[in-house]
Amino acid sequence: MEHITIKDIAKALNLSTSTVSRALRGSHEINPETKRLVMEYAEKFNYQPNPIALSLKENKSRSIGVIVPEIDNPFFSQAINGIEDIAYNKGYQVVIFQSHESYEREVINTQHITSRRVDGLLISLSGQTTNVEHLKNLHDKGLPIVLFDRISDEIDTHKVISDNFEGSFNGTEHLIKTGRKRIAHIAASPYLSITKERVKGYLAALEKYNIPVDESLLKYCNYGLQDIEFVIDQLFSNETPPDAIFTASDRLALGCLSTLQKRSIKIPEDIALIGFTNLKVASLLAPSLSTIVQPALDMGKRSAALLFDLIENTSKLPKSYQTFKLYTELIVRNSSVVKRGED
């Protein structure tokens, strides 16, 4: 079946092409009944805007850039799904770059973004990024930018995050309420905003229940299995090893699970384990992994919607930008509760 055009819709509804075009864009100049007729006809016959024609007419590339640390991280792949869903409905293409947790590659990615003349940028910072001048320069030149998940306070723009503090607090509190006293926290890069917030939540829960902070139980770790094994060995070389581990991500938790089982440490009998993200495999593990839900798909959709709002209203930029916190939720499974029944 051939794709219909604006001319086809105009001919079928006895309207001018300019009226149809404005109706499809949601222009306030078109009365609601005409908009309804046009949108219903467009949906019925699966109208899709021609991105090349639109880009020529509007002097836009009809594309947005997305920079994430790693696409093979399930959290970011879900976020990208949400971004692409919104972009597709807007008639935009999505150009995806990976920083691989490297500041240098992130800077190079932003240079490629500029050369492709994208209309806006969505970015989650790398684990090495402490200087965001490369982003501030683009933002100051007028490129709409929205930060998500891993953010910086040095750029005045919209940001979308999970409630990392609350999620971390609730996860640590759950372990305390199940009787754990020596709770280790394995965090990601110390430079990341998500790391700082999750560490704060962990410490706040300990403080609430008058559990002294033991600095030897707070570890920063990369995602490689060798790095995780090294941290686990450090924790268990302690005179009093931990009886629970709360990790800053499910990816770290998976490495911990594998390492602990290799060392014949029983979960949750000897040590409880809880993650942060809720990967699809979390419920399928043995034992199933307790975790904090991080709404990746919703984060992608919200971030993209905010970016398109900036792109489409560049002449009316908001007087103040906002940081949007999305919900987190604790899911208790077998890795953190002794003799827990089936989920």
From TrEMBL:
This protein's UniProt keywords: DNA-binding, Transcription, Transcription regulation
Coiled coil: none
InterPro entries per UniProt: HTH_LacI, Lambda_DNA-bd_dom_sf, Peripla_BP/Lac1_sug-bd_dom, Peripla_BP_I
Boundaries of every HTH lacI-type domain copy: 4-58
GO MF term (any one): DNA-binding transcription factor activity
A family per Pfam: LacI
Protein name: LacI family transcriptional regulator
Organism annotation: Arcicella rosea
Lineage: Bacteria, Pseudomonadati, Bacteroidota, Cytophagia, Cytophagales
